[in-house]
Amino acid sequence: MLMEVYLDYSATTKVDKEVLDYFNYVCNNFYANPNSNHDMGKKCNDLISSSISNICNYFNIFSDEIIFTSGASESNNTVLKGICSSGNEIITTKLEHSSIYGPCSYLQNKGYKIIFAPLDENGIVDIEKLEKLINDNTCLVSIGCVNSEIGLRQPIEEIGLMLKKYPNVLFHSDITQAVSKTDIDLSNVDMASFSGHKLFCFKGIGGLIKKRNVKILPLINGGKSTTVYRSGTPQTELICSLSKAFDSFNNDYSYVHELNEKIKKHLSKYDNILINSNEYCIDNVLNISFIGKDSNVVQKYFADHSIYVSTKTACSSDTSYSLCVYELYGDKDRASSSIRISLSYKTTTDEIDYFLNILDKLMEEYDEIG
User: Fold this and answer.
1) What's CA 303's distance to the chain center, in Å?
2) Which residue, among 282, 285, 215, 242, has the nearest Cα to 59 in the 3D structure?
3) Is 145 a catalytic residue?
4) Active-site residue (options: 27, 145, 315, 324)
5) What are the residues whose beta carbons fall under 8 Å from the beta carbon of 76, sequence distance 6 or more?
6) Tens digits of per-residue pLDDT, 321-358?
7) Contact partners, residue 21, CB within 8 Å, separation at least 6
8) Cα angle vertex 325, ends 330, 261, to 5°?
9) Does the predicted TM-score (pTM) go above 0.85?
10) Largest Cα–Cα distance in the chain?
């Protein structure tokens, strides 16, 4: 029986019904400008304040330490373009999202130096070697918590602890792919970015966590908002919907782990399928390569059977292969034949069974495909 199977949750998620219903409720009942000095405006402002408290409780931060943005790309740009420091060197990795590389290129043209932190054989940042890169010119270290293509989980807690020895160096992490999928401790992180559309909320809303002691220049100026660091009329419906999305998080990751293990066990019988995600990756992301096949051909085969996977992150550059897989394995053929399977707690076992059934058919026709 043909069924539609969505295995691209790392690209975006469907808005949860409770979130959508709450969005409509807020739209219909709290539509005044929250900056307005009348009862309706004050009620909207109070609702926003309650939503902020809910989100901040999740991250264990103060209510004035969150800036609402249009998403992680804006948050990342705000960090990189808004740093206030005498230094001109930024350290990042070769496993970051394009919304890190874009502003890095912009800053290079402004005279900043971009340095890439060394990775070990598993793709994890080598903290000792990272520390040796820090000097008086270093102003920012930006390292994503979870890589979107392979699922590598970086030790941002340990990295942040090491960087505490350097008070003039700020530490930023894009936690977009980590929120709700792995436990995160932001105690030693100065700034962190995330997006609502990865959390069963809407596109167009996200956040930048900025600790109280951090000074940055705003990317958008003019107009009262929830913070001086991002101007514009507060997005009441979106902020409240984002808070509602946080209410559904479950810290039990065992179900997704079981789905991941089931897929990997099934794949192990095929010599021409290589698993790119390793033991340091979260279970929500499983990256594999079909050796000798173009990833776009494989993706189309699955799409023709109503199964939706990615070849690489949806916001990546126009290269014909996965830069992250190439960085980890140094094999362009492997990187050119990789696809990303991304799971969620809403993925069903029936969907995985159907996916594996179609995968078996693909392998039966392997020599004829592409």
Assistant:
1) 24
2) 242
3) no
4) 315
5) 97, 99, 100, 103, 142, 172, 174, 193
6) 899 999 999 999 999 999 999 999 999 999 999 999 99
7) none
8) 125
9) yes
10) 70
